[in-house]
Amino acid sequence: MESRVNYALVGFFVIVLGAGLVALLLWFAAGGPGRQDYEHYLVYTTESVWALPQDAAVRYHGVRVGHVSQIGLDPANPSRVRLLLDISRGTPIKQDTRASLQLQGITGSAFVSLTGGSPGSPTLQRTDDAPYPVIKTSPSLMQRLDVIVNQVGKSLTQTSERLGRLLSDRNIASVNQTLANLNALSTRLNAHSGKLADAIDQFDALMRQTRATTDELPDLMRQLKHLSAEMGQSAAAVKRTLPQADEALRQFNTTVRSFRHLSDQLQADPSTLIYGPRPPKPGPGE
Question: Which residue in 11, 96, 194, 218 has a CA-CA distance of 20 to 30 Å to 147?
Fold first, then answer.
């Protein structure tokens, strides 16, 4: 009887010890004494995640607050990469928080960097079309550098094409022709340098004469003004004399008519000059 009781106790203790060991292993697997409670967040990115390892760190302003638990393609859009983040509960993930991929050094592994999260921004919440809250992304340093390099390469290509068009055979021939024309013009100018000097001297003399004439213009204007004033006075005198001249002209016309009448009488009867005019003949009944 005692033997059967001992076997039962041993079996019981073995079962209890095994269950305890299993529970202990599960506890350590879950994080052990340093276990933290995590909240799940989603991040969708179109950048390459070749340098992002599984269980990569998630840093909020440089402080590690979690890790990447899953990396895979977005089933709804395979052109995007879907990252599932486990972030410590209580981390202030706001609507203006942004996630980006960063490198630890030049050749180090990548991690997820969280920035932003102003105090006045609301806490990020899950929407109906996603199982977890979705953190928006911002371009990483590598992506910005890639964009800059592409733009610089495009600009260099355009510059090279423009230089190629500028240095075409036709343009080079035109430049050579222009240089030849300039050389010929320079030769002609050298051959006629004496004439050019004379022309310049003549132009200088003309400018001096023009300057002298310009200096005399004020005196000429004063003389013209004085002459205009005298002409105005003469016109006023003529205007005052016109009535007298008109009266003299009328008297002259009267005298001319009288002389004409006298001439007619003398031609008709010259004795009139000696005896005077004859009396008029008597009328009927006188």
Answer: 96
